[in-house]
Write the structure tokens for this entry.
Amino acid sequence: MTTATADVERTSGSPKPVQEVHHAAVRFAGDSGDGMQLAGTQLTNTSAVFGNDVATLPDFPAEIRAPAGTLAGVSGFQINFSDHDIYTPGDQVDALIAMNPAALRANLRDLLEGGILVVDSDEFTEQNLKRAKFDRNPLEPGDDLLARYRVYPVPLTRHTLEALKETGLGVKDAARCRNLYALGLVFWLYDRPLDTTLRWIERHFAGKVDVALANALALKAGYNFGETAEMFPVRYKVNRARLAPGKYRNLTGNQALALGLITAARLAGKPLIYASYPITPASDVLHELARYKNFDVRTIQAEDEIAAVTMALGASFAGAIGVTASSGPGIALKQEAVGLGVMTELPCVIIDVQRGGPSTGLPTKTEQADLWQVMLGRNGECPVPVLAARSPSDCFDAAIEAVRIAIKYMTPVFLLSDGFLANGAEPWRIPKAADLKPIEVVHATDPARFKPYLRDEHGARPWAIPGTAGLRHRIGGLEKEHVSGNVNYEPANHQLMVTLRAQKVANVVEDIPDQEVFGDPAGDLLIVTWGGTFGSARAAVEHLRSAGRKVSHMHLRWLHPMPRNVGELLRGFGRVLVCELNLGQLLLVLRGKYLVDAEGLHKVQGRPFMVSEIVAKANEMLQGARS
Amino acid sequence: MSTMPPLTAKDYKSDQEVRWCPGCGDYAILNQMQKVMADLRAPKDKTVFVSGIGCSSRFPYYMDTYGFHSIHGRAPGIATGVKCANPELDVWVITGDGDGLSIGAGQLLHAIRRNVDLKIILFNNRIYGLTKGQYSPTSEEGKKTKSTPYGSIDHPIYPLSVALGAGATFVARTVDVDVKHQQEVLKRAAAHKGTAFVEVYQNCNVYNHMAFEYASDRQVKADHIVYLEHGKPLIFGRESNKGIRLNGYGPEVVELDKGVTVDDLLIHDEKSPTATLAYLLAQMHYPELPEPMGVFRAVEQATYEDLLMEQIRAAREQRGDGDLDKLFSSGDTWTVE
């Protein structure tokens, strides 16, 4: 076991020395019923409100409550908080809080050498050790499994029960507060204020005074234990980050999607109709939106994925903002209706919060393997604009952009998120509503000039909504005659219409700014990413550049169409590396589209890239380039 | 008040050429729909016809209203979206036995159970016409078709039983060639607030000709169908001398002059709060029993879109109309100077 060294100061209030660090990554791990997501979220909010930059990685099993103490049931929540801009939740953690042996076994590999390991020693029973497949207790002297870490076995359960003795709460209920006890200890360890969580407890358990009191007591008891126990030689301090001035809040990707959709509907002056079928990890968007009926948000929990997308399309036909969301398996079901949206040229947004596939795959884990599905996975020539959010808070802007493009070009738009963004959180600089650009909506109103498929300068047909006097018309999935929109099977008309639909989607490029590159516009290596891989790649490129490498980063927000200058940028670099959580989907698109000899870094483990993985691959390629 | 010129069926015809096979029962239904629309002076600009896929689903192209010919089995979803976006619209769904009860059975059930204010007209011809003659979910057992050369081994599904099982608030049946009756039923459906489900026996003269001859042929139909009237006993037969009597849990045919009086007969009650009677009637099948025609059930229940809009109204009253700035700043916030 190592001890902390380096610049240590003593703050006036605390008898323990405090060491300043620039960032800290902490992971809570326990059974899926242990409240690890809650503890992690509270540490996140507290750190964010305190003024750190934060990035999080919740990681939970698909099973709601797998048998207690088993490896299958381990749920984790990782947070990285810092005094500077950060892009990722951290490759490895500085501290691991393991609530039982299974949590220890499942997470130990991610703890930095010399890292802090707090375990609930009460849970290291023979039975639990057996469940976690330990032959012997790793906490016992002579076991070298934990030799490289600073291990703090704390009887968290007994301490919590002791602290709550006076509350009259039963043992079972009292023991459930041990996550707050552990959280309190972490708050002490990283010099965090308690007030944000205390306020949350008050709000969350309003009406359950005894439960609120117990949680608050457990939190404080954990904090005090850190303060008084002669166990921890040092505590850490992460100062406020120098974020851009403004008002901030913490936001997960799914929350940001919901806020973005509400905002987009407001900016367009339209009701939002959001129809979806519950699916991990997209359901939270529905939960979030269902709360905001006072914004004229009309949510429908549909009977299935197909019903959901058709409801959204019907709503768009009738003049509302129709939106649906799902994850991979549900998107597969929706595709026929997306094709109908392409043929009828109606504005709607389909959100794919990607997860590990194929089939049911890894429901709670992240992946980026639906790019081909949303770009190509429909019958016929069926182009749909596709964009992807790059971080949790970016989901807000991406949602507004998706709605804006859908309306302007009268087309379904695919918006990609993923499990990592959906559940991960980061600080969001709150915009002023008045600063957001309105979304222009033009409805056809003049019967004398109305032709259902007469296109404007962007290639979009008019949006003529039922109820408008004199604009009665019929649309459908059969091929349309150019201009009139009547059913038409003529060979030349079909070729024309296929071309016009493709051209219309290609025209979206007019609304896409030229692609930017982080770093120099030319060099030895260009790292290309899309979606939630942004953070790991940006951190990797910053690292490589600070080491003097001629590496740049191109992060694509628009996957279809792509900005005009992408090909030119790709040609400015000796080598191109496409990092994505699939087996090379963007890679194939770029190679096909731009004839560039790009290479891929692929990872399909249900987890985001580690910065070090990208750095290692880049270094390997640069080495190769030199030799 | 100025008097408006009378509207005719022609006013509801679109400029599109109707392309069903000559002699198809769909023509009769289209004509009656246009006549009914004219009689009701239905506002064309506020009327939307939505359909799925199949012969019947071409229907919206021929109506001079708004129309949406969607994908197979999905008209109820599209129509629900339309109605939730704009509850002021009159929304009709045109479907068939394949579209509504095979590929689209799920959506049909759920639209009905939500009681969305939709008028759903299911054209039942007991065959797949557009794909050229395979058996459908309403085809009788043993039916020989291209896909069942040895006879179908599927048990048929009965549209009205399905609708009632889903909690339909309005259920009716009529026959394509029974012009007057069909008009009455369509008018009743139009007047219903909530999901109105109407099954129309429709002749496919190419692939399943005369499937409903027993119910449409003037010579024989009086003995094979019984017209339902609210509050009236179930009497049928060419001489109006037969009736339906309850025997235990089931209906039986009785002859009125053989010691049985009208008082012994089953009295129709379309407003019964439970669907028990309507279900019993829906289970009457030719040739064992005459098949009821008319309105089986018509009860009032809040519609989906009314409840949806009421929640929005209440939320606005309680929390005020949504304010984006307040929304953005909800929860824990902090300020960086």
Remarks:
- Chain B is about 30% helix and 20% strand.
- The two ends of chain B are 68 Å apart (CA to CA).
- Chain B touches chain A through 63 residues (CB under 8 Å).
